[in-house]
C-alpha cells in the first residue's frame, strides 16, 4: 500500500474511517492509561481525529503523525485553531492548542521525535495496514518508543476473505505475534460490532468483532 493511496482518499474525501464522535472505547478505557501518564500521547496515522481534541481536554499534550496536509489543516480548522507551521527535519510541524502534528511518513520518525511520549492511542493505524506493512509498523513503533510506554490499541477482526481492507482484519493472535516479544498484552474488551457497522455488512461481512488491548512495552 503506497502513500498515494491515502493522499488520494483525503483528496477525494473518501474517509469512511473518520469518526464524527469520540471513540467510546477511548472514553471507557482512557482512565487506565491516564493515571500512568507522565508525558505526551502519540496518535499515529491520526488524520483529523476528534479523539485528539478529547485527549487534550483530559489535560494531555498530543503529538500525531499524518501523511496528508489536507487532513491536518482540516483538523485545526474544524476545531477553531490557528496552528504555527515549521519545517522540522523530514516533517512539517503544525502546532496549536496543545496538539502537535507532524506531516510526513510514520517510518521517518525516530526516538528523538517521540522522546516525551509515554502513551500511544492506536485506533486506526494497525488496522489500516496490510499484513506485511503491519509487521514493519509494529517493529518501528516499538523501536522508537521508550520502555514502559503504554499503548491503547483497538482492532477489528472479521473473515478477511469476505472484504478487502482497509480496515484490515487483525485477530487476537495477530496482536500477540506482533507485540508479545516487546510488550505485556492485556485485553480490555471484546465486542460484536457488526450491527453497528452496516456498511461492512452490506459488503458481505458475516462477523465483526472489536478488541481493545492495553500494551505495556518492556
Structure commentary:
By secondary structure, the protein is an alpha/beta fold. It has a single domain, classed as Rossmann fold (3-Layer(aba) Sandwich), CATH 3.40.50. It has 7 helices and 9 strands, in the order ααβαβαββββαβαβαβ. Strands 3-4-5-2-1-6-7-9-8 form a 9-stranded mixed sheet, sandwiched between helices. A hairpin with a 2-residue loop joins β3 and β4. The longest helix has 14 residues. The radius of gyration is 16 Å and the shape is globular. The protein starts with a helix and ends with a strand. The model has no long low-confidence stretch (mean pLDDT 92).
Structural class: alpha/beta
CATH architecture: 3-Layer(aba) Sandwich
Q: Assign the CATH class.
A: Alpha Beta
Strand order of the largest sheet: 3-4-5-2-1-6-7-9-8
Detail the poorly predicted runs: none
Name the CATH homologous superfamily. Vaccinia Virus protein VP39
Helix fraction by DSSP (H/I, runs of at least 4): 25-40%
Portion of residues in beta strands equals: 25-35%
How does the overall form come out from the CA principal axes? globular
Secondary-structure element string: HHEHEHEEEEHEHEHE
Count of discrete alpha- or pi-helical segments spanning 4 or more residues: 7
- The tally of domains stands at 1
Ends apart, CA distance between termini: 30 Å
- Strand segment count: 9
CATH topology: Rossmann fold
Q: Mind summarizing the main beta sheet?
A: 9 strands, mixed
**pLDDT average, as an integer?**
92
Rg result:
16 Å
